[in-house]
Amino acid sequence: MTVSETRGARGVAGTEVRRRPKNRRAQIAASSAVAFGAAGYHGVSMEDIASGLGISSAALYRHYPSKYALFREELLRVGQAFTASIVVSAEETLPAAQRLRHMLTGLIGATVENRATVRLVRWEGRYLEPTDRVVLDDQQASVLVALDEQLATLRPELTTAELRLISTAILGVVTSIADHHAALPLRTLNKLLGSACMALTDTALPPAATVSEQGARVQIPDSFKHELLLRKAVELFHKRGYPNVSVEDIASAAGLSAASAVYRFYRGKSDILAAAFRRAADRVSAAIGPAVASTADSSAALGVLVDQFVADTFDERALAVVYYAEFGHVPAEERAVLRNIQRLSVQEWARLVREIRPELAAAEARFLVHAAFAMVIDLGQRFGDDPIAGRARVGFLMRRVLLG
């Protein structure tokens, strides 16, 4: 090695120079996805991301001008990865079912590979600026259209709306992987969720509801400020996102003259969120015991729980979405309690599933429960009170996911 080469490797002072890795942008994207996924877009700073990478904020800003630029690039990158993952073979002789399975394998692989960012796409895409949100929506729409086209070949008797119902259900099952931290080998996961998705396609749907099934909204008297604050806060969190709602906003929505009045009932905004989440978690948990006690077998108990979960989710759509979207904003000690309640509830559901399907491993049954929950929430959000996604139909689809 020449003297000049030696100095290039060691630096002018004879010390080793740390060269920038060629894949630094990829490292930044991966680290930011994990950080955003854990704490949400608003809960992470550029300093947090830089610290996680062991670099300075200045070094991070050389690659990305702002946190939003990093957030935007990561979400749209994964949106593009999803559209690429569903490209099927041009071989027209492949059976339609095989082509659909090929698409499902691609979607599952893309979700596993980008698990943290898929969670952002599911729950924090609304924080994109309008023009970027249009791009992400178009990417997601292209996935649904591709699924619609394959389903139409398999099920030509279905209407356009029914095809979209099943496509939305399938996408909810696949992307549910991002809503929890359980793990399975990719081959096992492909088989499990692929079979669950195919089960959604191979049986006639129950008739659509003839009228809207919107649940009766319980009127809360103005004097019940504790309950009124809880409801109004959840509605605002759902509409704007937790970080964009102030205590003053909640007080005004509940008809209180000043934010200080809120503190007579709750310690702060995060306390309201935690109270709402405890209610959501307890509702799922509390339904299990009565369902088991009042039925003759696991199949009947699971049927009761499915109907109850669909009814509760549809009656409280805002709360169901806020529970997943804003979980990172609950204080750490409260998150631990909520996770424990959720874990026990999922285990009980999974136990019933395994009593009906003993061939499943415990981890596989838990994955199916998470998938069924996510699918119901997604259908409730996508279709609202449209009779095409009535409660009987959604309950039927939930049973298909759980029981095959």
- Please name the fourth-level CATH homologous superfamily of the largest domain: Tetracycline Repressor, domain 2
CATH topology grouping of the largest domain: Tetracycline Repressor, domain 2
Mean pLDDT: 88
Distance between the termini: 66 Å
The helix fraction, in percent, is: 55-70%
Coarse morphology: globular
Number of strands: 0
Protein name: TetR family transcriptional regulator
Keywords: DNA-binding, Transcription, Transcription regulation
GO molecular function: DNA-binding transcription factor activity; transcription cis-regulatory region binding
InterPro entries: Homeodomain-like_sf (IPR009057), HTH-type_TetR-like_transc_reg (IPR050109), HTH_TetR (IPR001647)
Description:
By secondary structure, this protein is an all-alpha fold. The protein has helices at residues 3-10, 24-39, 46-53, 57-63, 67-85, 96-113, 115-124, 130-154, 160-175, 186-199, 225-240, 247-253, 269-286, 288-293, 298-315, 317-325, 332-356, 362-383, 391-403. The longest helix has 25 residues, at 130-154. The protein contains 19 helices and no strands. It folds into two domains: 24-199, Tetracycline Repressor, domain 2, CATH 1.10.357.10; 225-403, Orthogonal Bundle (Tetracycline Repressor, domain 2). Helix content is 68%, strand content 0%.
